[in-house]
Amino acid sequence: MVICSLLSVLFLAFICDIQNTMGHRLPRNLKNVAYGKFARQSSTYHHIPASYAVNGVFTDFTHTKLEKNPWIRIDLGRNYTVHEVEVFNRRDCCPERLHDVDIRVGNDLHAMHLCGHFTGPSTRGGERIAVFCPYNTFGRYVEIQIVEGWNNYLSVAEVIVWGRL
Is the pLDDT confidence value at 39 over 60? Predict the structure, then answer.
């Protein structure tokens, strides 16, 4: 029953181009520009792919190996104006692993601009971290990276990038 309800909500959210996201209203012409796009990560733990971050399923997750400054990067395929990035923590375990995260957006992988920072740590599984980008944040790539500590895993359930052409 719960799975059917969750699938119904996800279906409606992505098919109907929702305008509200978890309690606040988005500008009218925004959509999730990351859904189904190419994603990669700094390393891969037990064959768990980065594509899970942009597949619309909140019950699977990405997972890097234990490393310094792990990251997940999404190629949006073209340049978008990015309004907000939502990162959903995995539900099943280890919420505290999501901490000290920079979210960057840019046209060039060597010239990314800080959209926002989440200090954390996350306190519960499935937590939603919302970062609102500065006005006129524009880019093709979105990167989520843990920037503090020597040995970290980066594991998230979903990344939603609210943007427009």
Answer: yes
- How does strand 71-89 pair with strand 38-41? antiparallel
Domain range 30-164, its CATH number among 2.60.120.260, 1.10.275.10, 1.10.443.10, 3.40.630.30: 2.60.120.260
Task: Examine the pLDDT at 12 and tell me if it is beyond 90.
Answer: no
Residue 54 near residue 85 (C-beta atoms within 8 A): no
Whose tokens are 């959509």? That residue is: 31
First to last CA, the chain: 38
**Dihedrals phi, psi of 41, to nearest 5 degrees:** -135, 165
User: Nearest 5°: CA angle at 136, between 126 and 79?
Assistant: 75
